[in-house]
Write a structure and sequence with these properties.
The protein has one domain. It is 14% helix and 43% strand. The longest helix is centred in the C-terminal third of the chain and has 15 residues. The radius of gyration is 18 Å and the shape is elongated.
């Protein structure tokens, strides 16, 4: 197999959630992450390339979420984060990431001991209500930032997560559009030593205790 440019894509469904007084319940596949959060987890399969000892190097990324964010929560703000990592994140690490939103993110002074190189892609956004536009329950983006290393990976799987943080009360609702993340890069073969060291680093990171 020859080196080849590729675009890795991941689609995440929209949120259509209602708080039941205990946690958020979403009709489209996001699951509760404590009482104030939602989580969507998926994977990008690179096993065919990994079997042939290929590394994927991300050159640039793309984020698409055309649509409107809406909520009628009394608490107001909604925080959203997407992460793509070459190691799986435990529930403990995901909760730490949720609770740290607005202050820190995985790989950046992060209490969950997640190495910066393992975070290939990350995006954080803060939405707050804006009633001046005449749109019911409309949320306006007021802060956003990207993070992540774009570190090359030899892993057979990339792990994709979307975390939403919003304090809700019984019957309050939260709606977000579907989104797509694209990683533009290339599959290529490294020297044996570089490839083995990359695999070793990934294995060591997965052994870290929460």
């Amino acid at each position: 197999m020859e080196a080849r440019n590729e675009t890795l894509q991941e689609m995440i469904p929209p949120v259509n959630a209602t708080h039941n007084g205990v946690e958020w319940i979403d009709a489209n596949g996001h699951v509760p992450l404590q009482d104030d959060g939602l989580l969507y987890a998926s994977e990008i399969d690179l096993s065919g390339w990994a079997m042939n000892d290929f590394t994927f190097g991300t050159v640039r990324s793309q984020y698409q979420d055309p649509g409107i964010y809406e909520s009628n929560t009394a608490s107001g703000k909604v925080e959203v984060m997407e992460i793509i990592s070459d190691i799986p994140l435990s529930n403990t690490k995901l909760i730490i990431a949720k609770n740290g939103m607005g202050t820190t993110v995985p790989g950046m002074l992060y209490a969950g001991r997640l190495d910066f190189k393992a975070v290939i892609y990350g995006n954080y956004r803060l939405y707050v209500p804006n009633s001046t536009l005449g749109l019911t329950n409309y949320l306006q983006l007021i802060s956003s930032g990207s993070f992540g290393s774009k570190e090359p990976t030899a892993s057979a799987t990339l792990y994709c997560y979307r975390i939403i943080r919003c304090t809700g009360l019984n019957t309050e609702t939260l709606n977000t559009p579907a989104l797509r993340i694209g990683l533009f890069g290339a599959f290529y073969q490294e020297g044996d030593l570089d490839y083995m060291m990359r695999l070793k680093r990934s294995y060591q990171l997965q052994q870290l205790v929460d």
